[in-house]
Design goal:
The chain has a 5-stranded mixed β-sheet with strand order 1-4-5-2-3. It has 6 helices and 5 strands. Strand 4 and strand 5 form a beta hairpin. Helix 1 (3-16) runs antiparallel to helix 4 and helix 2 crosses helix 6. It has helices spanning 3-16, 24-41, 68-82, 86-96, 100-104, 138-153, and strands at residues 18-19, 46-51, 54-60, 117-122, 126-134. By secondary structure, it is of the alpha+beta class. Helices cover 49% and strands 19% of the residues.
Length: 162
């Protein structure tokens, strides 16, 4: 598994996981799947779904530390700034051998290029929001969001190797 291969897979995921519409009911379905997955794993996690700056879903599981709220904010900032998953942005920086500060003049105080942030895209419109997961290894956080979105959309997407 190479960074280039992972970036290609994530780009394909972002292309395939687009919605015709996204509102509170869809957010509830996606968020509920994420929370149920975390509970099944026994994981202390936090989730957020926002569209157009409006929080449509926010939940934690037992034991989730308060610091996850800041990770959520910072991952959301990455998704909304770059219109890509936070994991893809982090992998691209790693590939270039640069930090967010060097490449874009942004600070780690406000941007977290770690897996778990994924864009909500509408077909024909583009990115309108984000789904954020925090609490596990970044690759797992990313995979959980992809799995939830794919299940709600009823599509089969390529997964990153474990």
């Amino acid at each position: 598994m190479s960074i280039e291969s992972d970036l290609k897979t994530i780009a394909l995921q972002e292309q395939q996981l687009q919605f015709p519409a996204f509102g509170p009911d869809v957010a509830w379905e996606v968020g509920s799947r994420l929370r149920a997955d975390a509970i099944a794993r026994g994981a202390a996690m936090t989730f957020e779904i926002q569209v157009a700056g409006r929080t449509l879903f926010y939940a934690t599981t037992e034991g989730a530390p308060t610091g996850q709220a800041d990770w959520i904010r910072r991952k959301r900032n990455v998704v909304m700034r770059f219109c890509k998953s936070s994991y893809a942005v982090g992998l691209q920086l790693e590939l270039e051998g640069k930090t967010i500060e060097q490449r874009h003049g942004l600070t780690l105080t406000d941007f977290a290029m770690h897996g778990g942030g994924f864009p909500i895209s509408l077909r024909g419109t583009g990115v309108v929001g984000s789904v954020i997961s925090s609490g596990l290894h970044q690759r797992v956080d990313h995979g959980m969001v992809v799995d939830a979105l794919a299940a709600v959309l009823g599509v089969d997407v390529e997964r990153l190797p474990a």
